[in-house]
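Continuing the series of single-chain predictions for the mutant panel. This is the parent chain; the variants come on the following pages.
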Amino acid sequence: MSGKQKYKGILYIVCSAFCFSLMNMFVRLSGDLPSVQKSFFRNLVAFFFALIMIRREAVPLRCRAGNLKYLLLRSLFGTVGILCNFYAVDHLVLADASMLNKMSPFFVVVFSIFILKERVTVPHMLFVGGAFAGSLFVIKPSFSNMDLLPSLIGLAGGLGAGAAYTFVRKLSLRGEKGPLIVCFFSAFSCLATLPFLIYGYEPMSLRQIVLLLFAGLAAAGGQFGITAAYSHAPAREISVYDYSQIMFSALLGFLVFGQAPDALSWLGYVVICTMAVLMFFYNLKREK
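Parent structure:
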């Protein structure tokens, strides 16, 4: 893999992290609605956005032989991840919920060993483990400080997202195009949540509809970004950069909700950024 491809992967994953931060902000702003309802409208927008991209890029609306099972697994884990993340966003501080979901890069590296058969070196695991440890300063996982159930559900969301992103890389390596992966996932998620939406639908104001539409647009940007990222570079080399969402979430949390990170959170940010920089230079040295 060329250095240019890796740099593209890093750029895509950082852009994706920013888009997902915006998505969480819009979801939180949309108010007290069921997580399933928020998920449906978020994925409905992403579905039509993906259809437009498929038509523009002339991507066939069919998957390659042997890829259907991986598309289904990517979609199943992704749907579970979204539902868990939205629940956490509604019940926890925005930065904490985002951080729990951003455990996904750690899970990506672990899953890549078993699903992609990627070789992960000891330094790779140390860097990602260091980023994981830094994240603990941010979320301060004391059950006396945050509700137990939302925290566990948020962590499950990170695990689901990590598995989903690993299957995105698997599909990309097997020749599947990004727009089709996003379109299939969005359609699967809409169909999976539709029965629950019909049963428990709550009327929405015009403001809530607009906010969920913006959440869907941001989610589409995030999905295309993460899909492009793992299409350009191995998970072990770029997944740690997904932690940049912490910075974006902290900034949006401060500007929109007046949430100011404490000293421990800032310490966590420094640790995570340090691990990302160390990993970058380690990979650069290995290539040379």
